[in-house]
Design goal:
It is a single chain. By secondary structure, the chain is mainly alpha-helical. 58% of the residues lie in helices and 0% in strands. The chain is elongated and about 70 Å long.
């Protein structure tokens, strides 16, 4: 994604402002879950706007699905915690009983 830059006497590479802009883009896009393949879209190339927009939409839909799944987990745990009473016997704990049940499949 970045062409190798020349090395300084210290051995470090020296990148210009264009490369630094590209690196910032790559790091931020990656942090948002964008694949490296989608990141390869040239910066400032307007013909790729629709592709980038579709990719961003798919990522947003994926985030929404994950949030919905996490909310279901949260609701389930909250309900179990609400039914739990302090007990010395593991067999009377609603959380342990619920987690030990067979799946209804």
């Amino acid at each position: 994604m970045l062409a190798p830059a020349g090395r300084l006497a210290s051995g470090y590479r020296r990148y210009g402002s264009t490369e630094l802009k590209r690196l910032r883009f790559v790091r931020r896009a990656n942090a948002l879950g964008v694949s490296l393949e989608d990141i390869r879209v040239p910066l400032g190339d307007e013909k790729h706007d629709a592709k980038v927009n579709r990719s961003a939409q798919r990522k947003l839909e994926d985030v929404d699905r994950r949030i919905a799944a996490l909310l279901r987990v949260r609701h389930g745990r909250s309900a179990l915690i609400g039914t739990c009473q302090v007990s010395r016997s593991a067999c009377t704990c609603p959380i342990l009983n619920a987690l030990s049940k067979e799946d209804p499949s």
